[in-house]
Amino acid sequence: MNKNTAASGQKTFQIPDEVVSTSTGETARLAASVASTLKPGDVVCLHGDLGAGKTHFVKGVASYFGIDQNMVNSPTFTLIHEYPGDIPVYHFDCYRINDVREALEIGTEDYLYGSGICLIEWAEKIEAIIPEHALHITIGKISESERLFRFKPRPE
Amino acid sequence: MTILGIESSCDETAAAVYGPGGLRSNVIASQSIHELYGGVVPELASRAHQRTIWATVDQAISEAGCTIGDIEAVAVANGPGLMGALLVGLCFAKGFALRQGIPLIGVNHMDAHIYANFIDETPRYPFLGLVVSGGHTQIVLVEAPMQHTILGRTRDDAAGEAFDKIGKILGLPYPAGPVMDRLSQLGDPHFHRFPQALMNEGLDFSYSGLKTSALYHLQGIPDDEREEYLNDHLNDLCASISHAITEVLVKKLKRAFNQYPVDTIVLAGGVSANSMLRRKTEGLARRHDLKLHIPKIEYCTDNAAMIAVTGYIKAGLGQFDDMSLKPFASQNR
C-alpha cells in the first residue's frame, strides 16, 4: 500500500494495520512516520472520539514537514487551519459541520483537490465528499495515555 | 474620518460605521437577511456571506444615518480566518473603495478583538490583552497603537472550545459554554481538582489534557452510577472545570504582568462574557491596582464594530493598504 518509491535510498515506512501508542511522544513518532509516506494531494481522515488525540497526531505530521508544532492547534471553531511547510498542510475539523453542503460552502473541495496535504478531523461528517484515495486512521482509547491506531489503507 | 468596517472571517457577515463621534452602527447579518437571499442556509455557509454582504453594508450605512458618499475609508478583516469567507469581505471592500475612490485598510481580526475595548473606553498604552474565544486563546502585549507582541497562545484547544467540548462530555448540548457558565455559578469549584496544564511553563496554554481528564473522570464512575452522579454533581463538575480553565488564564495573565509591568489589562473575545473569568480578572486587577477593560458582550463575539474602530485607529496612524491587500488564513507571527 505504500506508494512511495525508495528512490531516495531511505527505507520507507510501511503503514501497518494497527499499532498501539503508549504515550504522546510515541504518537508523534508514529505520525512522523506516516507523514513520510505522504505527498502533495494526499488526504488523511482522522476518526476518534473527543479527546482521542486527533489534533496531537496532526502536530506530529506537521512537525515532519517543518512546521512548528506549537502553531498547530484545534480548528474546531475556525474549521480550517493552513500551515505553510515544506508541503502546505491543511488541517480541518468538521466537528461543527452538520451537513455536507456546509463543507462545500466553505470551499473544502478546493483543498481536497489542491496541492497540499489535507488532514481531516471528524471526516465522517463529510464522508460524501472525501476522495477515494484518502487514508483513514481511527484512534481508539485504551487508557488515559494509551491509544490504538487502526489504518484503513488507500486503494492502490 | 468616517470608516465602514466589514467582517466576514468565519460565520458572521457584519458591517459597521465608526466616525469621530464614536460608533454609529453595528449590524450582523441576521437569519432574516439569510432567508431573504437564499432560503434555508446552512449555519456555517461562508459563501452565504456573498449573498448577504450588500444588504448588511446597506443596513449599516442607513442605520448610521449617512449615505455611501459619507464613507471616507473601508476597513476589512483580511485574516486570520477561512480563505473563502475572507475573500468575500475583502473583494467587496476593494470594489467599494475603488468605486468610491477612498482608501482601503486591512485589519487583523485578532487585533480587532483587542481594539473592541476602544469602542466605549480608552485603555492606556502599554497594556496586556487576554484574547479568549472559541477559536483563540492569546496573551498579547500592546505597547502602542498597532504594536502587538503575542506573548502566549494555546498549543491545542482554545479556552472557549474547552468549555464547549467538556460541556458536551458532561452531556450538555454543544456549544456548551454559556450553559456551563450558568451551572458553574450553582456548583462548588473545588469539588474535583482537574489539571491546570503548563502552569509552570511560560505563557502558552494547553487545554486538551483537561478534556481527556474530564472524560476519564466520568469513565471512572461505574456505568450504573454515572447518570445519578451527573444528576447530583453536574453543577459541581461545571464549576470545577470552569475553575481549572479560568485559573490558568488568570495566573498566566498575572505572570505576563509580572514580566511586563503595565497598569492596564483588557479582556477580549467571546469568553470575556464568562462570569468566573470576569470575577477572577476583576480580583487580579483590584489586588494589583490595575485598570481593567472588558468590552460589551456584543463587541466580544465576532462583529464589524471592532473592525471599524481598528480601521479608525490605523487611519489615524496613516496605515492604509492598496489593492494588493491579500487575505491570510493563519496568524504566523
What do these coordinates show?
Chain A is an alpha/beta fold and 156 residues long. Chain A has one domain: Rossmann fold (3-Layer(aba) Sandwich). Helix content of chain A is 22%, strand content 23%. Chain A has four helices and seven strands, in the order E-H-E-H-E-E-H-H-E-E-E. Chain A has helices at 24-35, 54-64, 100-105, 108-112; strands at 18-21, 43-47, 80-83, 89-93, 117-121, 135-141, 147-152. Chain A has a seven-stranded mixed beta sheet with strand order 1-7-6-2-5-4-3. Chain A is globular, with a radius of gyration of 15 Å. Chain B is of the alpha/beta class and 333 residues long. Chain B has two domains: 3-115 and 299-316, Nucleotidyltransferase, domain 5 (2-Layer Sandwich); 125-294, ATPase, nucleotide binding domain (Nucleotidyltransferase, domain 5, 2-Layer Sandwich). In chain B, helix 4 (109-115) packs across helix 11 (305-316) and helix 5 (159-169) crosses helix 6 (177-184). Chain B is globular. Classes of the chains: A alpha/beta (156), B alpha/beta (333). At the A-B interface, strand 3 and helix 3 of A face helix 3, helix 5 and helix 7 of B.
Outline type of chain A? globular
Q: What's the N-to-C terminus distance of chain B? A: 30 Å
Major sheet strand order of chain A: 1-7-6-2-5-4-3
Spans where pLDDT lies below 50 across 5 or more residues of chain A: 1-9
Tally of contiguous helical segments of chain A: 4
| pLDDT < 50 runs, ≥5 residues of chain B | 38-43
CATH architecture of chain A: 3-Layer(aba) Sandwich
What is the fold named in CATH at topology level of chain A?
Answer: Rossmann fold
Provide a quick synopsis of the model.
Chain A is α/β, with parallel strands linked by helices and 156 residues long.
Write the layout of secondary structure elements.
The complex is a heterodimer of chains A (156) and B (333).
Chain A: E1 18-21, H1 24-35, E2 43-47, H2 54-64, E3 80-83, E4 89-93, H3 100-105, H4 108-112, E5 117-121, E6 135-141, E7 147-152
Parallel strand pairs in A: 2-5, 2-6, 4-5
Antiparallel strand pairs in A: 1-7, 3-4, 6-7
Helix pairs in contact in A: 1-2
Chain B: E1 3-7, E2 14-19, E3 22-28, H1 31-38, H2 48-63, E4 73-79, H3 83-100, E5 104-108, H4 109-115, E6 127-132, E7 137-144, E8 147-153, H5 159-169, H6 177-184, H7 208-219, H8 223-259, E9 264-268, H9 275-287, E10 291-293, H10 297-300, H11 305-316
Parallel strand pairs in B: 1-4, 4-5, 6-9, 9-10
Antiparallel strand pairs in B: 1-2, 2-3, 6-7, 7-8
